[in-house]
Amino acid sequence: MPWLFLFGAGVFEIFWALGLKYTDGFTRLWPSLGTAASMVISFFLLGLALRDLPLGTAYAIWTGIGTVGTAILGMVLFGEPSDALRLFCIGLILAGIVGLKLFTPH
Hints:
Elements: H1 2-23, H2 29-49, H3 55-78, H4 84-102
């Protein structure tokens, strides 16, 4: 269950990171409220995961999920560069996430 909480926390991190783009400096009400809600949910789920997972592992995976998801959605939604080197680097982050999951007891 802690891994499920951690995955959910990572997904909500993606939501709030993307939401920041739409808040226009927190001047738009609904995007700002959605972003804030996503932040709260993300931190709550991370806190639940941390009851059973090591801090360093959980934090690295949480930020990694957020980083990979946000980078990919930035390419898809905002036309950010998607050259081979950038995709390779995203792959390295993903490999680190998988490695941490595979070599962490629980």
